[in-house]
Amino acid sequence: MRVPMQQDSRADRPGTWREVVAGGADDEALMDLAQIVRDYGYIAILIGTFLEGETIVLIAGFLAFTGHLDLPLVILAAFVGSCSGDQLYFFIGRFQGRKLLKRFPAWQERTERVFYHVHRHQNLLILSFRFFYGLRNVTPFAVA
Q1: Helix, strand, coil % in the chain, rounded to nearest 5
Q2: Spans of the chain, pLDDT less than 50
Q3: Does residue 45 contact residue 75 with C-beta atoms inside 8 Å?
Q4: Residue 91, Ramachandran bin (φ over 0: left; ψ between -120 and 50: alpha; else beta)
Q5: Is the Cβ–Cβ distance between 118 and 125 less than 8 Å?
């Protein structure tokens, strides 16, 4: 026997967690999470991939899959953020690298590891450093 489904209306649901906790809220004052993603999603992707991007790109891909973001714009924002970060790290390494290594001796070990791989596998490392966890941000700095 088939049970008829009830219509789910906004009035039947309790609302956002803030409405439940506060006992009511102004709908205009609260931004919907989906709206925040649509408004700031591409900027968040750009900044996230500028710093470190694996998780950000996975989340952005899921949001594009669900229709909250456009895939071509997600790809563009991730590409621009990632390339900008690499260029900044390269120029910092080029012009301030030795000073920073003297100031932060803990970075020396990671940099030496990258130097070893650069000299041993030059072309392969330059093309694939992005896929080695822990070397992504250090490699442009060390190559410079």
Answers
A1: 70, 0, 30
A2: 1, 3, 5, 8-14, 17-18, 20-21, 25, 28-30
A3: no
A4: alpha
A5: yes
| 3-class state of residue 7 by DSSP | coil
Crossing angle of helices 33-51 and 71-103, rounded to 10°:
40
pTM exceeds 0.85, yes or no:
no
Please say whether the beta carbons of 56 and 24 come within 8 A.
Answer: no
Q: In whole angstroms, what is the distance from residue 48 CA to residue 16 CA?
A: 27
Amino acid making up residue 114: V
Angle at the Cα of 82 from the Cα atoms of 120 and 129, rounded to 5 degrees: 15
Residue 105 CB coordination number (10 Å): 8
Cα torsion for 58, 61, 66, 71, to the nearest 10°? 170
DSSP letter for each residue of 29-73: TSPPHHHHHHHHHHHHHHHHHHH--HHHHHHHHHHHHTTSS-HHH
d(CA 92, CA 100): 9
